[in-house]
Amino acid sequence: MPQNLAPCSLVQYFEHLTEKEQENIVHQWPMLRTRLSRQKANNSVEVFSNLLASRPDDVKDCLVLLDLMMTLSPSTAMCKRSFSTMNQLKSNVCKQILQRSLVDLMRVRSSDVSTKEYTSGPAITHWILDADEEAYIVKQ
Q1: Cα dihedral sign for 33, 36, 41, 47?
Q2: What is d(CA 47, CA 39) in angstroms, rounded to the nearest whole number?
Q3: pLDDT digits (tens, 9 = 90+) for 6-29
Q4: What DSSP string describes 39-106?
Q5: On the CB side of 84, how many CA atoms lie within 13 Å of its CA?
Q6: If you average pLDDT over residues 81-109, what whole number do you get?
Q7: Is 25 within 8 Å of 58 (Cβ atoms)?
Q8: Which of 56, 62, 104, 115 could lock 32 by a disulfide, CB 3.0 to 4.6 Å apart?
Q9: What percentage of the chain reaches a pLDDT higher than 90?
Q10: What is the pLDDT of residues 124-135, one digit of tens each?
Q11: Pick from 117, 137, 114, 140: which is nearest to 127 by CA?
Q12: Taking the mean position of all CA atoms in its chain, how far away is CA 49?
């Protein structure tokens, strides 16, 4: 099921969880989402704190993951670099850049590979021949 892809990848990120906990988290994730969607009007920190304090049985394994996520700092160097890259790409000139294009440009910009190692031929061929939208070519 597509809705279980996100918890699976989150679970794999925290590999020290037992296999049983990982399976339970994937199965309990929809129940946790339902609980959270019912409390959208409330302060999210308060909602998560209450969940962690009450530890309901139907989502108890998800709370292990939730606890880990709440204790990790979201302001890691990698996140800061990503936001910096996004801000550079989404300048005044490129206000209307599509999300898909932004993700691709961020991937290229944040890659450790030198720009000299990129080959543009396949991308240009795809852009001209196979793209969903018409390719605009500026003649000099």
Answers
A1: negative
A2: 7
A3: 556 665 666 777 888 888 888 998
A4: TTTS-HHHHHHHHHHH--GGGHHHHHHHHHHHHS-S--HHHHHHHHHHHHHS-STTTT--HHHHHHHH
A5: 9
A6: 69
A7: no
A8: 62
A9: 4
A10: 887 778 766 665
A11: 137
A12: 23
Helices (H) and strands (E) in the chain, counts: 7, 0
Token digits of residue 25: 């988290």
Mean pLDDT of the chain: 74
Residue type, 102: L
| Residue 140 identity | Q
Give the type of residue at 95: K
* Cβ atoms within 10 Å, residue 79: 11
The token pair that represents 122 in the structure block = 């396949």
Q: Nearest to residue 68, comparing CAs of 41, 48, 46?
A: 48
Of 92, 30, 89, nearest to 58 by C-alpha is: 30
Burial-class residue 29 by CB neighbours within 10 Å (0-12, 13-18, 19+): buried
- Residue 63 CA, chain-centre distance (Å), reads 20
- What is the pLDDT confidence band of residue 1, given thresholds at 50, 70 and 90? very low
With beta carbons less than 8 A apart as the criterion, state whether 108 and 118 touch: yes
